[in-house]
Amino acid sequence: MKLKFEQITPYFFILPHLGFFAVFLAFPVFFGIYISMHRWELLDWEKPFIGFGNFAKIFDSTTIQYEYFWNSLGNTLKFVVFSLPFLVITGLLLALLINQNLKFKGLFRCIFYTPVVLSITSVTLMWNWLLDTQSGLINYILSLGGYTPIAWLSTTEWAWVSLVVVTVWWTVGQNMLLFLAGLQDIAEHLYEAAKIDGANAWQRFWSITLPSLKPTTLFVTVMTTIASFNVFGQPYMMTRGGPGRDTQVAIMYIQEEAFSNYRFGNAAAMALIVSVFIIVISIFQFRLLSSDVEY
After folding, report:
1. What DSSP assignment string belongs to the chain?
2. What is the pTM of this model?
């Protein structure tokens, strides 16, 4: 009896996590697939099974869902392409900076990481004030230098610049912390041996630091890509998807289809397609970046 109890004891420890996983992750995924197979409209009591009908609308060029969804997914890809290099490279550079023997490196570490703990509401409200065309602080500073005020949030090009800058400012501290952990895990004797061999700072960085950071770089890149695909708060609260629908991202249109148009079946199908895109790109990144990675 005692042996049997010892065999099942480990399962009691994983039971709470398994319960949360089943309720908050597994069930929503399967329920979303179920909804995507039905004409699930909030105000309609009947929710008939239509198979892949909702998916067919998304791939039918004559429907409004086709135009708006693929436009929003294209905007999401733009955001990923624009923001990912800055989030990864800036995070690495900041980690390299505060990993040096600086006098106030603890203070700098705190300053760079502080924006991460702020809510998206606080971040967007602050930046909306800074970027306001008429009374924003940034345009006020530009006017002092004799420059014409810029419509940061109402012209397509500057709206994208603003969204990327705000995102980098808000989240780069997280990547910095991950890279810093990777840097501190590199054996110091490798650098000492390289110095004895006459390697300069750039050679030490290229031959020791970067190869040693491959696992960290892979993790940061994949997680940042997934987070960028799920962008919602910044464009929703700063540009409302404008001008027009030029900065409307996929999650924004899915939210509109579900909670404004009450077509939950269409929204669930779109969410699944976005999920497939994220999975495919993540697999590609793993294949591209995980070669010669040792854990």
Report:
1. -HHHHHHHHHHHHHHHHHHHHIIIIIHHHHHHHHHHTB--BTT-S---B-TTHHHHHHT-TTSHHHHHHHHHHHHHHHHHHHHHHHHHHHHHHHHHHHTS--TTHHHHHHHHHGGGGS-HHHHHHHHHHHH-TTT-HHHHHHHHTTPPP--TTTSHHHHHHHHHHHHHHHHHHHHHHHHHHHHHTS-HHHHHHHHHTT--HHHHIIIIIHHHTHHHHHHHHHHHHHHHHT--HHHHHHTTT-STTTT--HHHHHHHHHHTS-BHHHHHHHHHHHHHHHHHHHHHHHHHH-TT---
2. 0.90
